[in-house]
Design goal:
The complex is a heterodimer of chains A (about 300) and B (about 350). Chain A has helices at about 5-30, 40-55, 60-85, 90-105, 130-135, 140-160, 160-170, 175-180, 185-210, 220-230, 235-260, 265-270, 270-285, 285-295. With about 300 residues, chain A is mostly helical. Chain A has one domain (about 5-295). In chain B, helix 5 (about 90-105) packs across helix 11. Chain B contains 14 helices and two strands. Chain B has about 350 residues and is mostly helical. The model of chain B has no long low-confidence stretch (mean pLDDT about 90). Chain B is globular and about 70 Å long. The chains are: A mainly alpha (about 300), B mainly alpha (about 350). At the A-B interface, helix 4, helix 10, helix 12 and helix 13 of A face helix 6, helix 7, helix 12 and helix 14 of B.
Chain lengths: ~300, ~350
C-alpha cells in the first residue's frame, strides 16, 4: 500500500504533459482545425521554456516564454492552413519536421545545462498527510493547473456563447460564416490557444519533468496527445482519463525497470506507443461512433 | 488588405513554378541562417549547391542518398494520391533494414550469389509487413493511419536499438551498438567501384518508371486516385475503399523496405543504431515537391539529396549544427505549401 503512493504521483506527473497538450488540441479540433504539428510545437516550446528559465532564473518566465513560442509556432501553421487554405495534414507535418529541426538548432547551447531553480514543490500542510500527501500533494503546480484547465475548457465549450460559436465553426464553417461569424479569425485564435497549451506541455517536460533540454525530448508525446483527442471522442474530461491512463503506462515501464524485471529497456519503452495503437483501434472500431462525435469539418480547409 | 480570390481554373504554370519558388525561398532562408551564424553566405551556398556536384565521388554520393529518398517518396506519393496519410515510411524503412539484417546474419558465410537477392527480398517483405500492420488496423478497426504509422515508427526505432544493443550486437564490435559486417555475398554490389553507389539506385529508377505506369496507365492506379480525390464518386462507381488502403500501404511498405535493405546491405554493411537519418520523413517532402508524380519524385529526390549532403558538409566544413538539414526540410515544405495556394487562388489588393 505504501509503495502505491509514489506510483500514483508518478502517473499524474507523466500524464500531465499529455493532458495539457491534448486540452489545447481539443480546442483546435473543436474549431475544425487538425494541427499535426503538435510535436514540433512542443519541442520549440520546450527549448524556449528552458532558455527562458535558464536566463531569467524564474520558472514562471520560462513557462510564459514557452506558451508564447508555442502560440507563435502554431500561428505559422495557422497562417498557412487557415489563412492560405493549405492542406492541414501536410502543413502540420511540415511544422512537426521544422520544429524538431529548429529546436535542435536553438537547443545546442543548452545541452547538458540545468535550470537554476528548485523544480520540486509541495502543497503546504496537505503534503504531510499520510499516503494522500505523497500520492497527490507533492506535485508541481502545473499538474493541478492542467486539471483546472480541463474544468475551464469543459465549461467554455458547454456553457459559454463563445464556446458555442467555436463548436459551430468546427461543425459547419459555411453556416457559421453565413450567419456572420469571422470563421478564419476564430480558427486562428483557436490555433494560437492550442499552441500555447502545447507550449506549456513542452515546458513542463524541459523545466519540471526531466528537467533538462535533450534533443527530441518530447519523444512522440505530441502525437500521443493528438491520439488522445480521438480517444476522448473530443470530450474534455475523457482526455483526463486518457492522459492518466498513458501516464500509468509510462509508470509501469519505470516500475518494472526499477523492480529489475529482465526485459530490455528498449522493449519497455515501446509500451506507450503500442498502448496508443491498441487504444486507437479499440475506440475507433465503430466508425459511426467516431463520425457522430467528431467535429464535422475536422481537417477540411475553409475559404469563403 | 490583400485577399485571396479563387481562380476559375487551377493555374498550370503555378503548379510547376511553385517548387522552384519554394526552392528559392529555402535557399534565401539558408543564406540568412548562415549569415546569422556568422558564416559567409556565398561560401555556404557553394557548400550546398556546388561542392557536391564537383567530383565523380560527390555525384555518386548524391545517387546513394537519392536511393532511399526516391523509393520511399514513390510509395508515399501513391498513398497520398489514394488519400491514405501514411507518414511512417521511416518505420517501414527500419523494418526493412531489420528483416534484411536478419536474413544476412542467418545466411552462412561463403554462400551462393543469391544471398544478396534474398537479403533484398527479406527487406521488402519486412517493410511490407510493417505497413501491412497499419493497413490492418485501419481496415479492420478503423484506426487513424497517421497516428498508427507514426507510432509504429517509434516502435521500429526502439526495435533497432534493442537488436543492436542486445541479441544482434557484434561481440567483436568494441561494445559499439552495431551488428557484425555482412558477408560480401549478402551485400548489394557497387555499380562502379570504388564509389559506393550501388544497384539499389537502378532499382529505384526502375521503380519510378513502374510507378508512372501504375499510376497513369493502369486500372488499379486509376481506381486508387479516384478513391483519393472523390471518395463519394469512387463508392458510387463500386471501387473498394479497402483495396485503396491495402494496395497503397503494401506498395509503400515494400518500397521503403527495399530502401532499408539497400542501406544495410549497401553503404553500411551492417545494422547500426543510426541506420536511417530520417529518410522516411524527408521523403514526405520529396513526394510533395515532386507533385506526387514519379518523375517529379526523381527530380525532387535529387534536390533533397543535395540538401542532405549539403547539411553534412556544412557540419564538417562550416561547423554548423547538423539539425540545419531538418530546418531546411521543414522550411522547404512550408514554402512549397504556401506557394501551392497560388495554384488555385490569386491575390487581390483592395
Amino acid at each position: 500500500m505504501e509503495q502505491l503512493a509514489p506510483l500514483i504521483a508518478a502517473t499524474l506527473a507523466a500524464g500531465t504533459p499529455l493532458l495539457l497538450a491534448a486540452m489545447g488540441l481539443l480546442i483546435n479540433e473543436r474549431a475544425g482545425v487538425l494541427n499535426l504539428g503538435a510535436e514540433g510545437i512542443m519541442l520549440m516550446a520546450a527549448v524556449a521554456g528552458f532558455a527562458g528559465g535558464y536566463h531569467s532564473g524564474s520558472m514562471l518566465a520560462g513557462l510564459a516564454m514557452a506558451a508564447l513560442v508555442g502560440a507563435i509556432t502554431a500561428l505559422v501553421f495557422g497562417v498557412l492552413a487557415v489563412g492560405l487554405a493549405t492542406n492541414q495534414y501536410a502543413t502540420g507535418l511540415a511544422v512537426a519536421l521544422g520544429g524538431a529541426g529548429l529546436s535542435a538548432f536553438f537547443g545546442l547551447p543548452y545541452v547538458g545545462k540545468s535550470v537554476p531553480f528548485n523544480t520540486t514543490f509541495e502543497v503546504p500542510w496537505l503534503a504531510d498527510l499520510p499516503f494522500v500527501g505523497v500520492a497527490f500533494f507533492k506535485l508541481h503546480p502545473l499538474v493541478y493547473f492542467a486539471l483546472l484547465l480541463t474544468a475551464a475548457t469543459a465549461w467554455f465549450l458547454a456553457r459559454t456563447h463563445a464556446g458555442l460559436v467555436l463548436r459551430a465553426v468546427g461543425e459547419s464553417p459555411e453556416s457559421a460564416y453565413a450567419i456572420g461569424f469571422p470563421v478564419r479569425t476564430i480558427r486562428l485564435a483557436a490555433v494560437a490557444w492550442g499552441g500555447a497549451c502545447c507550449g506549456l506541455a513542452g515546458a513542463y517536460l524541459s523545466l519540471v519533468y526531466t528537467p533538462l533540454w535533450v534533443e527530441g525530448m518530447v519523444a512522440g508525446r505530441g502525437w500521443i496527445a493528438l491520439a488522445l483527442t480521438t480517444f476522448a471522442t473530443w470530450r474534455p474530461w475523457r482526455i483526463v482519463l486518457g492522459a492518466y491512463l498513458f501516464g500509468s503506462v509510462t509508470m509501469v515501464q519505470f516500475a518494472l525497470q526499477s523492480e529489475g524485471v529482465d526485459i530490455a529497456s528498449q522493449l519497455l519503452a515501446m509500451l506507450p506507443y503500442l498502448a496508443t495503437i491498441v487504444v486507437l483501434a479499440l475506440i475507433s472500431r465503430n466508425p459511426a461512433f467516431i463520425r457522430i462525435n467528431m467535429p464535422a469539418s475536422l481537417g477540411k480547409t475553409f475559404h469563403p | 488588405m490583400p485577399r485571396l480570390e479563387p481562380r476559375a481554373e487551377a493555374s498550370q504554370a503555378m503548379r510547376f513554378a511553385a517548387p522552384l519558388v519554394a526552392l528559392l525561398v529555402t535557399a534565401g532562408i539558408t543564406a540568412c541562417l548562415m549569415f546569422g551564424f556568422g558564416r559567409d553566405p556565398v561560401d555556404g551556398m557553394r557548400v550546398f549547391f556546388v561542392v557536391p556536384l564537383e567530383s565523380a565521388r560527390g555525384l555518386a554520393e548524391i545517387g546513394l542518398k537519392m536511393t532511399p529518398l526516391l523509393l520511399c517518396a514513390l510509395g508515399l506519393a501513391l498513398c497520398y494520391r489514394a488519400n491514405i496519410w501514411n507518414i511512417g515510411a521511416e518505420g517501414q524503412l527500419l523494418a526493412g533494414s531489420i528483416a534484411a539484417t536478419g536474413m544476412a546474419l542467418s545466411i552462412g558465410p561463403g554462400n551462393s550469389h543469391v544471398a544478396g537477392l534474398l537479403v533484398v527480398i527479406a527487406g521488402a517483405a519486412g517493410g511490407a509487413l510493417w505497413a501491412g500492420l497499419t493497413a490492418l488496423l485501419r481496415d479492420r478497426w478503423n484506426a487513424n493511419e497517421i497516428l498508427v504509422s507514426l507510432m509504429l515508427t517509434y516502435v521500429a526505432q526502439l526495435m533497432v536499438l534493442y537488436l543492436v544493443n542486445g541479441p544482434w550486437r557484434d561481440p567483436a564490435g568494441m561494445n559499439f551498438p552495431v551488428t557484425r559486417m555482412f558477408d560480401a555475398a549478402a551485400s548489394v554490389g557497387a555499380i562502379v567501384p570504388p564509389y559506393r553507389l550501388n544497384w539499389g539506385f537502378v532499382v529505384a529508377l526502375v521503380a519510378a518508371a513502374f510507378g508512372w505506369v501504375f499510376l497513369f496507365r493502369s486500372r488499379i492506379g486509376y481506381r486508387l486516385q479516384v478513391s483519393g480525390n472523390a471518395p463519394l464518386a469512387a463508392r458510387f462507381a463500386g471501387f473498394s475503399e479497402r483495396e485503396g488502403i491495402w494496395v497503397s500501404l503494401l506498395i509503400c511498405g515494400t518500397l521503403a523496405g527495399l530502401a532499408g535493405a539497400f542501406e544495410v546491405a549497401g553503404p553500411l554493411g551492417q545494422l547500426t543504431a543510426q541506420v536511417s537519418t530520417g529518410y522516411g520523413f524527408a521523403a514526405i517532402i520529396v513526394a510533395w515537391l515532386g507533385r506526387l508524380t514519379p518523375l517529379g519524385c526523381v527530380l525532387a529526390s535529387f534536390v533533397m539529396s543535395l540538401i542532405v549532403i549539403g547539411g553534412e558538409l556544412s557540419q564538417s566544413r562550416l561547423g554548423l549544427p547538423g539539425a540545419i538539414t531538418m530546418v531546411l526540410q521543414g522550411v522547404l515544405l512550408l514554402a512549397l505549401l504556401s506557394a501551392d495556394t497560388f495554384v488555385n487562388y490569386r491575390i487581390r489588393w483592395r
